[in-house]
Amino acid sequence: MNGLCYTSAGEGKASKPAPLRTSVHSSSGAQEEVPMKVAVIALLFAAPAFAQAPPAASTAACGPGNVSFRVKLDDSQHTPAQPDPGKAQVYFLQDAGTGMTLGYPTVKLAIDGTWVGANHGNSYFSVSVQPGEHHVCVMLQSSLVAQRVELAHFAAEADKVYYYRTRLIMSRSVELLELNSIDSDQGKYLIASFPLSISSPKK
Predict the structure, then answer these.
(1) Cα-atom radius of gyration of the chain, to the nearest Å?
(2) Does position 22 have pLDDT exceeding 60, yes or no?
(3) pTM listed for this prediction
């Protein structure tokens, strides 16, 4: 038979073991005993609060948290930019999925720890990068719910063009931010459909 058996003197009957207790200090300095079960439950409920903060290394691709952008949209036609000699060109396109973008949040993007621009509603911009591995971060500039962060990395090759699409899926209090690499045909189609985003950091 497994487990410990406690007997009561004189009766020969098994009695239940006393609950484990732990001591805590009250604000007055006196020791108080608290059942161990309560302490464990409190610890379990507290654990998610510690897990919600991602380690700094995981968001190293993002820029400083206090940077925000003003965005102006240029509706004139634009010829897609070609890579500078020996470099790669990266397009970031925000697809709102609707033309009704009043109140739509601004999406800011960073490469290798530096914010490079922002999109608002249906819009796009591009940046030139050196060949090699790069890490991308996208965040909402403001959010009514918990902040969303999307990360990706890619190996840039000289004279190549890359296309990344961001989308925000909203349903009542739920926000889902997506960052995906897309085919060049889709990228060119969205560039022809969307205005150019001209963003500058707020001072």
Answers:
(1) 28
(2) no
(3) 0.70
